[in-house]
Queue: 2 jobs
Job 1
Amino acid sequence: MIEYEFDVPIPGEILPEDCWAKTAIKRLPLPAPLDFAAIFGRVAPLIVEVGCGNGRYTLQSALARPDFNHFASDLLPVVIRYATRRGNQRGLHNVRFAVRDAESIIGEYLGEGVASEIHLYHPQPYHDPRQAHRRLVTPRFLADVHRTLVPGGLFVIQTDNPDYWSYFTQVIPTYFDWHEQDEPWPDAPEGRSRREILARSRNLKIFRGFGTRRDDLDRGAAFAALQSLPAPSFRSRGPWCDLDVWEERQPPPR
């Protein structure tokens, strides 16, 4: 059976129950680098998605790349329940989902040079200027992403908020060889995330980009750069704000 969301198929099919997997990490240990070889029972390249929502991208990637381990997290338990159910029903033994905020996952639970890729789709822009300090993408967050990636590792990010995007393009090139992706991702032409599908249905522009880790920056230089980069204190206004308010009033994403 195939599931749909906004008339777009959820990646994969629901398998017979005897083929299901167990994808939930029900309780993370105290903050410390995770042992992914023990978690997955094998050594394999690691793909991380933070703020994964109901898991659309991680499911898609895990199905397409079975030789990679996939670890995804979100702060909201309700969306992780949907993500784990889907991962379980698709028999994805190469996936683990956990409830945790992105900042602590990147800063505390991922060791140095453990991830081949880190993905972040549509981080919350916090339109109220009094909440600007809660924005995830900061110079410190980027320095932690840089530390976590293997040499030449990939960082992928997207948003439908032009103000946040302008900030990304200002600070991300300090840590990554940066490229903008003008067209939809070829592997998901209708959208890699629930938010992308919804924003495109409202004719909002999607800003996509990716960068490879700048290996000419050692750890000391990466953290020294924090002093010269601005904080994400931009004002956020426009039609995407109305979409955020609409989403907040909807039932939890399935």
Note: The beta strands are 4-5, 8-9, 46-50, 69-74, 95-99, 115-121, 149-159, 176-181, 207-213.
Job 2
Amino acid sequence: MRRAIEVWLMGIAFSLGTALAANAGERMFVPLGDGNAIAVIDIAEDKVIGRIDDVSAAHGLAGTPDGRYLIAGTSRTRVRLGSAPAKPTEVGEVDRTVHHAPGKSDAATGGGDVVNTVTIIRQSDLKIERQIDVPGAVHHVAASPDNRFAVVTHPGHNGISVIDLVAHQAGPIVLTGPGANFAVFSLDGSQVYVSNGGNGTVTALNTKTWNVTRTFKVGREPEHLAIAPNGRHLYVNNVKSGTVSEIYLIDPRRAREYRVGANPHGVDVSDDSDWCYVALQDDNKLVAINRKKQPQRTLMLAPEPYHLAVVRGMAKIYVSSAKEPKIWVVDATTLKVLREIPIGGKGHQMVQQRRS
């Protein structure tokens, strides 16, 4: 019996050591909104190891899969690069117009020399390489699997800007629907999906033409999106419905909707694609829903769980708080809090990247 226990413990130690080795050098980047910085976390140690400063009101963030760039967006406006000096107009990164009133125009970005910024950051040295003008407040960001493009959403302009990461320039806004909120690419990069909070839809665009190819009807005021690692299931939180929609991309007729609770916000999917994790900001809960019809699991988290990210290859979840400057580290299997990470601000769209 003792020998069996020793073998079992050795197996756990080996598995943990293998996971840590596989994720050595990987970091989680957490934009801090009005903190005007991005926190850098060592995911093996669950501790902050640095900051990227001078990134104004960073809310949306994405990383290129090759580990070369981080792409940070802001909902704060400023004078266009190269224009005559003037005091920029500022809109806070949690402004209600951007976050909870989809479809309304950006009053502060109506034209002229007032624009918004997308910042390109080198991961090699965490220095800013380029700032790119875009015509409206940016909410969330996605990077294409081929490292060529980034997409930023403009809720107040009902669409997205496509940024060429080779030429370092942005194209005109592509309309997707009222209150364009969140974007994710398909695993093969052929499609990008955009949630439209103003009409309860998710729009699919062809990434060769940037034309809309399909529209999925979901719940009321959809926001965050997560695509499962298997590439077949797309999840979206419906804020006003208190639900999560599961779109089966191979056959959308087999879509499902799960009731989860008040004000679902962050959403992500387990490594095996079986579990979807949802932060319920108003209910102070983390909920795990299972596509194979296992019972929902719940963890009480207070105050106000907000954005979340599954830490790939580590069987844990990072969940930020909308009220306190911290991240909860949650065991994805047991749904128990392992520890907390002080981050010095309010954590938004988190990105896991391997050191380049």
Note: The domain at 27-354 is CATH 2.130.10.10 (Methylamine Dehydrogenase; Chain H).
